[in-house]
Write a structure and sequence with these properties.
The complex is a heterodimer. Chain A is α/β, with parallel strands linked by helices. Helix content of chain A is 51%, strand content 11%. In chain A, β4, α5 (132-143) and β5 (148-153) form a beta-alpha-beta unit. Chain B is built from 17 helices and 8 strands. The chains are: A alpha/beta, B alpha/beta.
Chain lengths: 455, 457
Amino acid sequence: MNTTALRLAVVGHSNTGKTSLLRTLLRDRDFGQVADRAGTTRHVEGARLSIDGATALELFDTPGLEDPSGLRDYLDLLCPSSERLDGPARIERFLASSEASRRYEQEAKVLRQLSHSDAGLYVIDARDPVLGKHQDELALLSDCAKPLLPVLNFSAASHNRAAAWADALARAGLHAYVPFDTVAPAEGGEAQLYASLALLISHGKAALTRLTEHLAEQRQQRQHAGIRCIAELLLNSAALRHSVPSANAAAALSELQNTLREREQHCVRNLLQLYGFHPDDALPDHLPLNAGRWGDDLFHPETLKQLGIKVGGGMAAGAASGVGIDLLFGGMTLGAAALLGAVAGGGLQTARNYGKRLIGKLKGHAELTVDDNLLRLLAARGLWLLAALDTRGHAATEALQGQTPTAPWPDALPKPLRQARAHPQWCAWQEQATDEERQRAVSELAAVLHDSRQA
Amino acid sequence: MRNALSSPHHTSTFDRLWLAESLRLLEEQQGPLDDQAVLAHLQQQGNHRPKDLILQRAAAEGARLKLDHAQQRWRLLQRLGSPLLALLALLSGGLLSASLLGDGSQPVNIFVVLLGLGGLASLTLVLWLGGMLLRQSSSVLGRLWLDVQRLSLGDGNAAWLARGYAALLSRGHLLRWQLGLISHSFWLLHLTGALLGLVLLLSVRRYGFIWESTLLPAESFITLTQPIGMAAALLNLPQPDLGQIAASDQWQRHDAALQQAWAGWLLAALLLYVWLPRLIGVIVCALHYQRRQRRLDIDLSLPGYATLANRLQHRSLGVLDAEHPHTSTRATHAAPSAGSGQWLVGLELADDEPWPLSHAEGWRDGGVLRQRQHSAALLQGWQAQPPQHLLLVCDARQTPDRGLERWLESLANAAAQPALLLLHAEHSPRLALWQQLNWPHPRFEHWAQAHAWTQSA
């Protein structure tokens, strides 16, 4: 099964971001944690990318080539030019030599791994100047006679020397290279990398195409999952009802606000996890979060204003609290029809729920619900974060920061949310919330969110 | 590979999906479970499809939370409960027939029997159909049955199973088919019981059928009886003709043919108009349920599963070519004891770095070296006349490597007093790496320090 897997060695000078590249390609933040010294890999470590349980690509992290100049001198000593050995023969002789396990042990690991691989990804820190040692490095790597794809890391940094590198690579016979930011790759960067590789390894073309398709599919799945996270948050918030004695309304209000803050944070955590960030990770600059949290409080009037949610004068106080007190028949107006339907249809839970609410109403309880504007704010922030996570590249950064998102649905909430208002039992934070109608509402809401994302 | 995947308890695919769904809901509300041990175990097994991994993890975690026992309890209740429920349905049907027919001493109103046996069943069927058209799951009996099963699980972890069950079925759009199946089956058995009771009682007793009403006129019975009688015609059973119907407003105690005709008419109507629709309902629900159940699967676009799929995917191939630490033997060279002059040499500096450095008056310029071999000329010159002070200049923003270390060493060995000056140290995130560099000589980060060093010596 694994015989068809392509083998790629990731090579380069020390500290150019080889391990970062692997972590990004594998979407595994923990790869290479075994390294005893932070920032330096001194062994060869492998990992695979699978499609449905079948290995598509095997990637190998190698130590940095630290002393290429010394090694090149040593190679010249081992293989006098009079013998006219070709590259692979020279490498073979070196690997059999005594220094391959002593002074040049690290370099030997790199060259051995590259010789056993189908191709190499040569990682370059584009901010570094091109030096003699790099030229020696290129000469050594090309002696392995394996296709080599230079990967220009940090090529989006302000002081990069990408042009000098392109020139140096061309002089070494490497005319194709890909810019790829290993920490925050541009959208489609990965696909470009695999496409360039496919040009170099003809027998790997099918596998790489399949892999690219699979990655696109996964990305779509992540997007759907992210949107569902947001949809669940919104639907639960819309369905949420707190019945409290009117006298305690103030205390209950702040309790409800805390619940919502927590739930939004929960959603943020889920989204970050979905995109492979650890809760305590340092996040890329372009994400609109401070230490994994939204900087602006959910219930600050300014937050609403920033997102273009206009609040009328009389509404301002209620909007700032983000919670409306539903005094009008305890929400019965919205739900009377649904109540009849539910009783007729045998929704015992629904009937029970209405009973409870009616009793609460008779006892003089107030019902707290989440304000429309707050729902719009939650939607806007969620979608904003999702967009930022989805386009991780630096190129997308400016586009995201340039525009503050506008809150969706200025006129009326979409139908699933209006429905949720009349179905307190849809709130998964309080109830079982497993009925089919709710699931349909979540799917519909997800579709609506998807559309407002496109717009 | 399949053997490694099949779970030890031979649970069905549905049960494994059910467990996974329950755990997904639990983790969504209460945060992730600590699955380190399971994860480690799964990773040893090599490469599997993400969906299989999720199911395997669910099986292991479910066993830890004793959810598998709860599942077995649920199944046991189902196995014990369904025959009981079936028996109840049959008996209730039979008893209803018996109570409606009585002991034969009194005439029996044929329409009361028909309505009593078929009325409620038909009404609930119509309600169910309406519910299906409105896409609402509307089966009281099915809901009740689910509620009873839910109660059997109690609170705690097992309560999540009930949620998971309903969620999995709703997600696959088969909850309403299952609820429908339960209620149709109950009604079908109830009606079967009623029909059997009817046949039994009609076989062993003689009943007199009449129709009577205070409010309704006689014509309405006659017009109602005939279309209902088409069922009997279809089934080739006897049915009363017009004359017989008209005569049945009174008890015709000795007309056996008339009573037989009414009995045929009643049986055929119940069988065709009440029993058969329920049978069709059972078949339709069962077919839909089976078809949709086969399509149930792990949906990787659900947030919980998407994250899990990524986390469970076993990627590492391990360390293949481990580091063998060995003591590097450092060649010790006798450094020249005294030299003359101050030399300044730049190593691996970028070509946009200004050179020679400003304030470097009184220093001899060794130039900027970017290639190891280029230092050969300098070293050769220094063999005859080694420098007293040799200041090697590097860019702190670059990564110091073993090659540079060796190069620095070879240059330092040629001078009486070597030192290292790091440019841009304040802007370098890699300064710590330079501090780890094996360099036994003075190291400066500012020109002033280097200047003071030459003065003090």
